[in-house]
Write a structure and sequence with these properties.
Blueprint lengths: L5 E3 H6 L5 H35 L7 H25 L1 H19 L5 H28 L3 H28 L1 H4 L2 H21 L4 H5 L5 H11 L10 E3 L19 H32 L4 H29 L2 H15 L8 H29 L5 H28 L9 H25 L26
Parallel strand pairs: 1-2
Helix pairs in contact: 2-5, 2-6, 2-8, 2-11, 3-4, 3-5, 3-15, 4-5, 4-8, 5-15, 6-12, 6-14, 11-12, 11-14, 11-15, 11-16, 12-14, 13-14, 13-16, 14-15
Length: 467
């Protein structure tokens, strides 16, 4: 500690024992992420049903998928900056509740125009929940387990992505495509209420805001019941240089000048593959002769592969950092390119989809953990938000490129070649990111890069400690 009436903030957070309350916080963050993942995947199962109902061509609803991605691109940095200014928790609650209302409205759409507008608004909220949930859990989690916790929380996204396929398989044949949205909306309202009632605000956010010192002290006592914290105690953030939260310029200061663009390229390349699968895979499977129920079950294998990857990353993320993602990029490229192949046996095809999901979703989980580890508290939400926004550029290419290739009469089996090629680009960027971490920390493990106004290597931020 730093003085009789001063408490070092990082020691408060990092000295915690994993208690029941901490586990509840982790579960709630994972559920918030799962709600986002559910909405990300749901459109891929709704579109084939609407195409049949409205008697439209295969590319007619691609603008709806694009509108959702544009909304996420705007919502990520916008709600990320609002989270840095007004708090992570309010943005999570407002985002989930708004998504639920919009999903219920979407059950009443009467044409493509309605769907485009509503998906754009849903995307805005989905894009904002993610960076705030990741930042909040990173800032109340001890450094020694932060990477593993972020991986665990990110598994919520993958779990959410897997569920719509099973809902489509079980409910759509008898209750229609609206059942997918109703199930999601109910779950999101429950999670929003739980976050509002139980989830704390980030102690690092509270300590940095004038007028919220008492709330920060209450949170400190909640995290550290083993300490006696006086009412006049002052929380201090250590010797790190002050930084203005939400400043985009700081994302490119010092060593972050290399880290940030490499993260953006990795995210964009991987999101192209991820959203291509979410948008087109159910349609491609049905085009190959699968029923709605069968396509839902098979497409869900992609997310199941991601769950397996997330469990594996739990054990290696702290020790190997971003290194596993390098392998996933290069191995995943040919697997993604083969997802719609019609020459594979059903068993091999299922293995290809599971393995492709293992790589693509595994990369996404690894990137989420990296964002919580690499950026300092003052720019964590905005850093995560802008990286997600960069990823949306790749995501936007998924429905656009798919529709363009179909318009050029490219066979459905060859459509995934485009996202497969972009994974190779992401692999090169991931190699550069790995080398930057190696240079900064002396190993493949990662910690917070320091904020600096000039270039060159500077000492580690005290928030991160030593690598």
């Amino acid at each position: 500690m730093t003085g009789a009436n001063s408490l070092e903030l990082n020691q408060i957070v990092d000295g915690q024992r994993l208690r029941g309350a901490s586990i509840v916080f982790i579960v709630l963050a994972a559920l918030a992420m799962a709600s986002d993942g559910y909405d990300l995947a749901s459109l891929g199962y709704i579109i084939p049903e609407l195409l049949k109902q409205w008697h439209l061509g295969r590319t007619a609803l691609a603008p709806a998928a694009g509108a959702g991605i544009i909304g996420m691109a705007i919502g990520g940095p916008l709600l990320g900056m609002l989270g840095d200014r007004f708090g992570r928790k309010p943005m999570i609650v407002a985002g989930l509740a708004t998504i639920a209302v919009l999903d219920l409205l979407m059950t009443q759409v009467r044409g493509p125009g309605d769907l485009v507008i509503l998906r754009g608004l849903v995307g805005l909220m989905v894009g904002g929940v993610f960076p705030n949930a990741a930042a909040l859990i990173a800032e109340i989690t001890p450094r020694l387990i932060r990477g593993r916790v972020l991986v665990l929380v990110s598994l919520g996204v993958v779990l959410g992505i897997a569920i719509p396929g099973f809902v489509a398989r079980g409910l759509v044949p008898t209750h229609g495509w609206q059942s997918i949205l109703v199930v999601g909306a109910c779950a999101q309202l429950v999670v929003a209420a739980a976050v509002a009632l139980i989830m704390p605000e980030s102690i690092k956010y509270l300590a940095a805001r004038t007028g919220r010192e008492l709330q920060a002290l209450r949170m400190a006592r909640r995290l550290r019941p083993d300490l006696t914290i006086a009412d006049n105690a002052r929380l201090v953030a250590g010797a790190a240089a002050p930084a203005k939260g939400g400043s985009i310029r700081l994302l490119f200061a010092g060593s972050l000048a290399v880290v940030t663009p490499m993260l953006w390229i990795c995210q964009a390349a991987n999101q192209m593959s991820n959203f291509f699968s979410l948008t087109w895979l159910p349609q491609l499977l049905q085009a190959g002769g699968a029923s709605t129920a069968a396509a839902g079950g098979t497409a869900s294998l992609f997310a199941i592969g991601g769950l397996i990857a997330g469990v594996l990353l739990l054990f290696v993320i702290e020790r190997l950092g971003v290194m596993p993602m390098v392998a996933m990029f290069f191995v995943g490229a040919p697997l993604v390119a083969s997802m719609a192949s019609t020459s594979l046996s059903p068993t091999i095809h299922a293995l290809v989809i599971v393995s492709a999901g293992f790589c693509v979703q595994g990369i996404q989980i690894g990137l989420t953990a990296a964002l919580g580890l690499l950026y300092p508290t003052t720019i964590r939400s905005v850093g995560t938000g802008w990286t997600q926004a960069a990823g949306r550029l790749g995501a936007f290419a998924a429905p656009t490129v798919g529709a363009l290739l179909l318009g050029l009469n490219v066979s459905t089996s060859k459509l995934p070649f485009a996202p497969g090629a972009l994974l190779l680009v992401g692999g090169v960027a991931c190699v550069v990111l790995t080398l930057a971490c190696r240079r900064q920390f002396g190993s493949f493990r990662v910690a917070e890069f320091p904020i600096a106004s000039g270039a060159g290597k500077v000492p580690l931020d005290p928030v991160a400690g030593t690598a």
